[in-house]
Specification:
Elements lengths: L1 H34 L3 H11 L6 H17 L3 H13 L6 H12 L3 H14 L5 H17 L5 E4 L9 E6 L6 E6 L19 E6 L10 E2 L11 E7 L5 E7 L9 E9 L2 E2 L3 E3 L9 E6 L5 E6 L9 E6 L11 E2 L10 E9 L2 E8 L9 E8 L2 E2 L3 E2 L10 E6 L3 H7 L3 E7 L8 E7 L4 E9 L10 E6 L4 E5 L5 E4 L9 E7 L6 E6 L7 E4 L2 E3 L7 E2 L14 H16 L4 E7 L6 H21 L7 E7 L10 E5 L2 E5 L7 H5 L4 H11 L1 E8 L15 E2 L6
Helix pairs in contact: 1-2, 2-3, 3-4, 4-5, 5-6, 6-7
Length: 699
């Protein structure tokens, strides 16, 4: 019996040892798969090992790794369930809050995501990248509440139950696309250990005459382009005879990375692909090429050494098409982040160059978002998020545009194209089309009499657009004018000029620049009637016995310059007046000099000389105040009431010398009066101006 007990004990110990060894082997194997990026295989091994692990901390580490596997495979719901279990178990790694925040964003749980990121920030205060995610949570809700005008449609005829993504134009007429898929019919056998899905190949679909897509078929049935490895994410050159694409080779227990290849297309056949060797590191990922129109520049995504974080965008160039590309250059911190920048697309439109790409490092809505940067003066501008609905809380990536003007006119849209997204929460990528409908503008308003506030019929309204177009309308019996959507366009600024006989002209400005919604712009005008009496120019006052224009009074003349330029048909009479001190002859001479100073200034500002009729009145026309006037002399105010006639007798009756000086100053003035509205330029630019001294004001 004793020997039997010893034997049983030995057997139990042996079995327990084997069990523990097997458990450790499963976890170690799962860890190895995880490090190789084979997340599907790793998740299955972790789940198999989990029930056999007794250590609480290790069990939580395994659950955390399972959550990460589902996160990297794009299954946000499953990832969140495992992350929440780990958080409830108080797993000590603060990064669990980071990843929980990311999947909550993906599921549009922005409030929960914000709480996750703020918790992470408390635990890791020096990691400033979390501030971008906190900002993203706040921006995302605002973007969803105020969507752009893009219309997004899932292309059901192109999509399958598996992954379909990264479309590229396949012909010059934009009637076919080539895209990446792992649907039934791919060459590779089995499943990718990283995704748990079939390997990817290229398929092609074509549009018929009615604009309907054909059923997608393999782009290569000869095993040249499509192989047992993962092929995908490519683009044609501008001639559509050379195809640049990504190939990710697969080998068990090795990290082989991805590379960019080129192949020539002749009909339905492909030449043997040629590797473009951007790095000697076989484990580095190099892919997602986009090529310039002249094929001398390529931009791609890679995690090669020297980057900013995860995968960055890099650029390589060559001086001639038949040369090899030079050493890749990182696009820098304006474009790249500590996250991932992927799926670049170059777009050439209206003499501008744009770079579209996807990123999870810039402020966004969750997962990968689409961004745009413009190439200006040798630099890429700060990326602009394309916002909702092109972006969603899921992965949105690889956008292409159809910029053919004829097609855009036929479709009645401003922009159209395709992009990829897994926004249906199935973790499967699909192809979506988008259109940007036109926006319409108009400018209208009512022209009023500024004195009576009544509408003015028959006023001429002229708009001049920054695009060079000019349109003219006349107000109706209710003073109404309008320029409709056939005359007013987006991204233009319009100068509006209004004129009517007997009124000063008016002008205004309206712009559609920066407007992303249709809008009826309203601009009313109030025209001031041209007065019959002379108008005293404000603040054109002179020192005693002086005719020089002081700099501070030139501003008042600038107002007259503006009136004359805005009303090019009016001719004015300029009247120069002195006070009553001095002889008539002296004051006439002084009046002449003051009139000449004003005329010379107006001519220097571009006013035609023959529109100016200057007259010197000397002291002969005392001023009649049309409103209360106040003059400050030696710091003291002197006010003269409306209706006062500043005759010599009145001024001499004033009590103090300073008060009399204030009255004399009001008499020293320049006036203007409109005498004609039919001026036609004579072409004589240097015609001398004759200044008339008026000695008999009653004539």
């Amino acid at each position: 019996m004793q020997n039997k007990s010893i034997l049983i004990t030995f057997i139990l110990i042996f079995i327990t040892g084997i069990f523990a060894f097997g458990q450790k082997n499963l976890v170690a194997e799962a860890d190895g798969k995880y490090e190789l990026g084979q997340y599907y295989s790793a998740s299955q091994l972790y789940l198999k090992a989990y029930p056999k692990v007794e250590n609480k901390l290790e069990k939580n580490r395994i659950l955390y790794r399972v959550g990460l596997c589902y996160y990297y495979m794009g299954d946000a719901r499953k990832a969140l369930s495992y992350f929440n279990r780990v958080i409830r178990a108080q797993y000590p790694d603060p990064e669990v809050f980071w990843y929980t925040g990311l999947v909550n964003m993906t599921l549009t749980n922005y409030e929960d995501a914000l709480a996750n990121f703020e918790q992470y920030k408390q635990l890791v205060p020096n990691d400033t990248i979390v501030d971008i995610k906190i900002e993203s949570c706040k921006l995302s809700k605002a973007w969803m509440d105020n969507p752009t005008l893009y219309e997004v449609i899932s292309e059901r005829k192109l999509n399958s139950k598996n992954q379909d993504f990264a479309p590229a134009w396949a012909d010059k007429k934009y009637r076919s696309i080539i895209f990446t898929t792992n649907r039934d019919g791919v060459v590779g056998k089995g499943v990718d250990e990283g995704t748990g899905l079939p390997f990817t190949d290229f398929f092609i679909a074509e549009k018929d005459k009615k604009g309907n897509w054909s059923a997608p078929v393999t782009a290569d049935d000869q095993g040249v382009l499509n192989t047992q490895h993962n092929e995908g994410v490519g683009c044609f050159n501008s001639k559509f005879n050379t195809f640049y694409f990504t190939k990710c080779k697969v080998e068990k227990k090795k990290i082989l990375g991805c590379s960019i290849y080129t192949t020539m297309k002749r009909g339905r056949t492909w030449s043997e692909p040629i590797l473009i060797p951007f790095t000697t590191d076989s484990s580095a990922t190099v892919g997602h090429p986009t090529i310039s129109n002249d094929e001398t520049m390529i931009i791609f995504s890679s995690n090669m050494p020297g980057g900013m974080g995860g995968r960055d965008l890099w650029m390589a160039t060559k001086t001639k098409k038949n040369q090899d590309f030079g050493q890749p250059v990182n696009l820098g911190s304006v474009i790249n982040t500590a996250g991932n920048e992927l799926f670049p697309t170059l777009r050439y439109v209206n003499n501008k160059v744009y770079l579209y790409f996807s990123s999870d490092g810039h402020p966004g809505m969750g997962g990968l978002d689409l961004y745009r940067s413009e190439y200006i003066d040798g630099q890429w501008t700060a990326p602009e998020n394309l916002r909702y609905p092109l972006n969603s809380s899921q992965d949105d990536f690889h956008i292409i545009f159809l910029d053919d003007p004829t097609t855009l006119r036929t479709e009645g849209v401003r922009e159209m194209g395709f992009f990829s997204s897994n926004r249906n929460l199935s973790s499967m990528d699909d192809i979506y089309s988008f259109k940007l409908p036109p926006i319409y503008f108009s400018i209208s308003g009512i022209v009023y009499d500024d004195s009576t506030k009544l509408p003015i019929p028959g006023a001429a309204v002229r708009v001049e657009g920054s695009d060079g177009n000019i349109y003219i309308d006349t107000t109706d019996t209710k003073g109404y004018y309008m320029f409709d959507k056939t005359q007013i366009f987006e991204n233009n600024t319009y100068q509006i000029y209004v004129s009517k006989e007997g009124y000063f002209n008016e002008k205004g400005i309206e712009t559609t620049v920066g407007l992303d919604r249709s809008k009826d712009l309203v601009h009313d005008f109030y025209l001031a009637p041209i007065p019959k009496k002379p108008i005293v120019l404000p603040d054109i006052l002179y020192d005693f016995d002086d005719w020089q224009l002081k700099p501070q009074y030139q501003d008042s003349l600038n107002g007259l310059v503006e009136i004359l330029k805005d009303n090019p048909k009016i001719v004015i009479e300029l009247g120069s007046h002195t006070d009553s001190r001095g002889s008539l002859e002296y004051n006439d001479s002084l009046s002449y000099k003051r009139a000449k100073a004003v005329v010379d200034y107006l001519i220097s500002k571009g006013i035609e000389p023959d529109r100016l009729i200057p007259k010197g009145f000397g002291e002969r026309v005392p001023r009649v105040l049309e409103s209360d006037k106040t003059v400050i002399i030696k710091g003291k105010e002197y006010t003269f009431p409306k209706g006062t006639v500043l005759t010599e007798e009145y001024i001499n009756s004033l009590k103090t010398e300073d008060e009399r000086e204030a009255a004399h100053q009001l008499n020293r003035r320049t006036t203007f009066q409109i005498i004609r509205e039919d001026y036609v330029p004579s072409g004589e630019q240097n015609k001398p101006v004759q200044i008339e001294i008026i000695k008999d004001v009653n004539k």
